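We modelled the chain as a single entity of 301 amino acids. Its sequence is:
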Amino acid sequence: MRPARSCPVCDAPVSQASLFVEENIDTTRISGFSFASRKEPEYMCHRLMRCSRCDLVYVSNPPGQDELARAYHVSDYDSSEEATDAAVSYIAAMRPILAKLAQKERVLEIGSGTGILLEFLQSEGFSTLVGVEPSSAAIAAAPAHRRDWLREGIFIESDFEPASFDLICCFMTMEHVQDPKATAMAARRLLRPGGAFVTVTHDYTSLVNRLLGKKSPIIDIEHMQIFSGPSLRELFSRCGYQDIGLKPFYNRYSLKYWLRLAPLPSPLKTFVRAACGRTGLDRMKLAVNVGNTMAAGFVPR
């Protein structure tokens, strides 16, 4: 049995948390896609507790950092189209944040995938682009012109100079790290005055996730914690950020991808996906608010 941890945002002991979802893991179903981005839902998860103090849902007995790093390193990757769609939505939601930065020169992305978001940020005026990505398959899928921006491995603060970035992004990654507060604190130390740390996370309190319950794709073996508005604000506040802002936004993906996530019985899902594929409807793009939240905090000037 792995040791129990306190809430990784507010440090409340696990005794002050209530059961959110019991562990449900079938080791025979774990594959190269179990720790891949935008995968078919597997409906497996570690034991999740809900903190009564800050509202975070978190794994009480998480795998070790080395175990997680190995899982992400060997994970498969087949979501380049969805990564591009996500980056388009992220940039649109980020523009008000970018307008408030003291300067736009150096950006670091934690969990960069193929580096598509960095390419969009280059178009927004950033000249030095750095991405950290643990999946070798994701980096291999990146076009050649982005690979010089990408560093394979997990994020380690000491790899970078303090106060050397104007923007640090961590999109759909804070759920996956073992210590989100350590990541947010490291980002603050790496940011210049007037710089911003920006995250995108799931919100388990959103309407769609409450309706889906245990069949929500966010209840997943990859997720070490799942945020809500209060727990995000608590995280940014505890780490010393100012001008903290949170907002939900719309993701625009193809119908093919939305069907991949839908909690339909397997035969029905197969039939619907095939029918949409034959008619071309699966390529239609739909913008949906599925409860994702963009949060930003600034380092005082």
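As a brief sanity check on the tokenised model: The chain has one domain: 14-252+292-298. The first strand starts at residue 17 and ends at 21.
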